[in-house]
Automatic annotation (TrEMBL):
InterPro entries in UniProt: 6-PGluconate_DH-like_C_sf, NAD(P)-bd_dom_sf, P5C_Rdtase_cat_N, P5CR_dimer, Pyrroline-COOH_reductase
Record-given protein name: Pyrroline-5-carboxylate reductase
Upper classification of the organism: Archaea, Methanobacteriati, Methanobacteriota, Stenosarchaea group, Methanomicrobia
Domain Pyrroline-5-carboxylate reductase dimerisation: 159-257
UniProt GO BP: L-proline biosynthetic process
Residues the entry annotates as binding NADP(+): 7-12
Pathway assigned to this chain's UniProt record: Amino-acid biosynthesis; L-proline biosynthesis; L-proline from L-glutamate 5-semialdehyde: step 1/1
Keyword terms, alphabetized: Amino-acid biosynthesis, Cytoplasm, NADP, Oxidoreductase, Proline biosynthesis
Gene name, Swiss-Prot/TrEMBL: proC
Length: 272
C-alpha cells in the first residue's frame, strides 16, 4: 500500500484529494492530510473520509508520496522544517509554481517532482504539467503519470518551459473565461440584451465548442473553417480577432513572465 500525504488543503490540495479518492487512485484510508488552519482539513475529511494529522511532520513521516500544496513562498519553510523526515526513500510532488526542482532538492532530500495541475481536473479535463527531477525513478514516473492521468492529461515537460505552458494550461481557464465575458459584455453594449442572457449564450457555445474539439478531434483551424466561410460574416469577425488578439496575448505573457520573475526573486530572498 502507498500512503499519500497532503500538506495544504486549500483550493488545489483539496481538489487533488477529492479527485484521487473519486478516481480510485487512492483509497481514503491511504491519504493523510494536514492544513495550517484546521477547518479546511476537517471539512475535506468530512467530504472524503481521509485522515487528518495533527502536524505536517506527522503527514511526512507516514507518507511514501508527499503532495505539497502550499503557496510558493511557503514551500521553503515547510520543507526545511521536515528536512530530517524527507529522505530519498520518499517522493515529493510539489504543485507550487515558481519553486524549481533545484529549490526542492536544496530544501529536501526526497526524490522530487513538480506538477502544475489545472482546476479543470475537477471535471476530469485539462492538462497537468509534470517535470521530473533527476532522482525520480521509472516507478515514480509511472505513479505520478497515472495519478494525474486519472483526472487530466498529464504532459511531461522540460522545466525551462514551465511558465509559458502554465499560462496555456493552469491560468488559461481564467483567461478563457475573461475573454468570453468580454464577448458577452460587448453584445450587451451593442444591443441592450440582458447580461445574464448574453453570458448564457456564450457559455453554452463555449461548452459546445469544447465538445466539438474533443469529439471530432478537430483542431482550432478546423472549427474556424467549418463556421467562417471565405468572404462571410463570421470570417470578418475572425479577421478582427486576428488583428487585435496577438497584442493582448503577447502582453499577457510579458506580464505573467514578469510576475514569475518577481516571485522567484522573492523565493531567493527567503534564503538558499
Ligand atoms: N489554484 C490553482 O489553480 C493552482 C494551479 C496550479 C498550481 N497551484 C499551486 O498550488 C499551490 C496552492 O495554491 P492554492 O490555490 O490551493 O492556494 P490556497 O487555496 O491558499 O491553499 C494553500 C493552503 O496551504 C495551507 N498552508 C499554508 N502554509 C501551510 C503550512 N505550513 N502547513 C500546512 N498548510 C499550510 C493554507 O492554509 P490556511 O488555511 O491556513 O491559509 C492553505 O489552505 C500554490 O503553490 C500554487 O502555485 C495552484
Amino acid at each position: 500500500m502507498t500512503t499519500f500525504g497532503v500538506i495544504g488543503t486549500g483550493s488545489m490540495g483539496s481538489m487533488l484529494v477529492r479527485k484521487m479518492v473519486e478516481t480510485g487512485q487512492a483509497g481514503a484510508h491511504e491519504i493523510i492530510a494536514y492544513n495550517r488552519s484546521a477547518e479546511k482539513a476537517l471539512r475535506l475529511a468530512g467530504e472524503t473520509g481521509v485522515r487528518i494529522a495533527p502536524s505536517a511532520r506527522d503527514v511526512a513521516e507516514e507518507s511514501d508520496v508527499l503532495l505539497l500544496c502550499v503557496r510558493p513562498l511557503e514551500v521553503r519553510g515547510v520543507l526545511l522544517d521536515l528536512r530530517g523526515v524527507l529522505t530519498p526513500d520518499r517522493l515529493l510532488v510539489s504543485v507550487a509554481s515558481d519553486v524549481t526542482l533545484n529549490n526542492l532538492s536544496a530544501w529536501s532530500k526526497a526524490r522530487a517532482v513538480r506538477a502544475i495541475p489545472s482546476i479543470t481536473s475537477e471535471c476530469g479535463g485539462g492538462v497537468t504539467l509534470v517535470a521530473f527531477g533527476d532522482t525520480a525513478s521509472a516507478s515514480d514516473r509511472h505513479l505520478v503519470l497515472s495519478l494525474f492521468g486519472a483526472m487530466s492529461s498529464p504532459v511531461e515537460i522540460a522545466e525551462e518551459h514551465v511558465e509559458v505552458m502554465t499560462a496555456l494550461t493552469s491560468c488559461a481557464p481564467a483567461f478563457i473565461a475573461a475573454l468570453m465575458q468580454e464577448f458577452a459584455a460587448a453584445a450587451v453594449r451593442r444591443s441592450g440584451i440582458a447580461p445574464a442572457v448574453a453570458e448564457r449564450l456564450v457559455r453554452e457555445t463555449l461548452t459546445g465548442t469544447a465538445g466539438l474539439l474533443a469529439a471530432s478531434g478537430t483542431d482550432f483551424e478546423g472549427v474556424i473553417a467549418r463556421v467562417a466561410t471565405e468572404g462571410g460574416i463570421t470570417r470578418m469577425g475572425v479577421d478582427v480577432i486576428r488583428q487585435g488578439a496577438p497584442g493582448v496575448f503577447d502582453e499577457i505573457l510579458v506580464k505573467t513572465d514578469a510576475r514569475h520573475d518577481l516571485v522567484k526573486a522573492k523565493i531567493r530572498e527567503t534564503g538558499p
